[in-house]
Amino acid sequence: MKVVITGITGMRNRGVEAIVIPTIEGLRTYNPSIDINLLTRSPDYDEIRLQPYEVNLHLESKNLTTKTPSISRKKRLLSQVFPLYKLPKPQPIPTSRIIRKASAIIASGGDIFSPEYPITPHLKPLKLALDLGKSIIFLAQSISPYRTDEEAESWLEVARQAKLITVRELATYKYVTEILGLSTDLVKLTADPAFLLKPSPDTTINNLLESYGIPKHRPLVAIATSQGICSYASIWDQRKHLTAWQKVVTTILEDLDADVMIIPHVQEVRAGNDDRLIATSLLRALDYNPRVHVAGADHSASEFKGLIGRCELVIAERMHAAIAGLSSGVCTLAVGYSIKAQGIMADLVGEDNLQGGLLISIDDFLNPDLASQAVHNAWKQRDEIKTKIQDKLPYIQKKALSNFEIIFNTLKH
Question: Is residue 354 predicted with pLDDT exceeding 60?
């Protein structure tokens, strides 16, 4: 069996890596010989990151070009002789054999079909696959409410023809079944594969912490700052964003007497989405306080997860940094701008705990006083939340693994 996984923006985004690696492992749990192909925007970098997993990487843009087959001379003559004979409308087909030879196309990517992003590029390979009669599957998606009927219909046009849609939180499940009207036979509630990501070994993490000069005598708080999040807020203001983080870090250092580790979870080539930039700006604003550390090397998602797992608290604008905290049993405060943060957090810690301070909107976070208050609230309940997470985590991980059982059961029919 050959599958093509789409929606891969690249492993420079450790959230993408955190989804892709458990997906590869999950697919091979049920079919060890499966031929896995990834359409990605950065195959050169991703090849380095995914080398141990023996998958085939293909440049996305090269493999989504199409050609229109020519109409035969015989059919053209028939149309001239018989006025009622209509020439068949030629369907564009991919110039690449990757999609043409695939058994199924799996759309990964988490929330790439939400209206916060342009969804058309991610729909293209799925439409090409449908034109070729291939099965398409949406894997562990979050779908925020679409702003217009036209937006919703552009996704539904493809989604209705899918073989299977799995969604990673209850809020999306209710939206796509109750509001958008998709059948519960088609849509299944699972969990994000990133909950299955294995952290790096303890010895590796011990050495990393020591190499970054992080002391053992004070608690450690991880913060996953996002260079791109302000573009999703109602007010674009990078200055206010930086000021809020300064207040948060000062609160951690002075009120909680903890050290801070900055996790640049996304390190894309595009400056607007490279978290190392805001990490550096924050360091400068704090005059390079020696108790604030940046895990700035080219770390894998597993290394970041191992580092996050050593913390007392995680404050994350990046969803998969938050999932790294949650799946490590660490109290996590998520800064959200879409359905994914609320949905995933609620499924694990409960809606009541979200209302109690484990989720803050980006608009509220830009108010330094509200941001600082949220940190205090999370810190006070961290032990209680840790217990709740550890109780619920096996169930969530089982749901995450069920993605792959459902996929193979679906493809059998």
Answer: yes
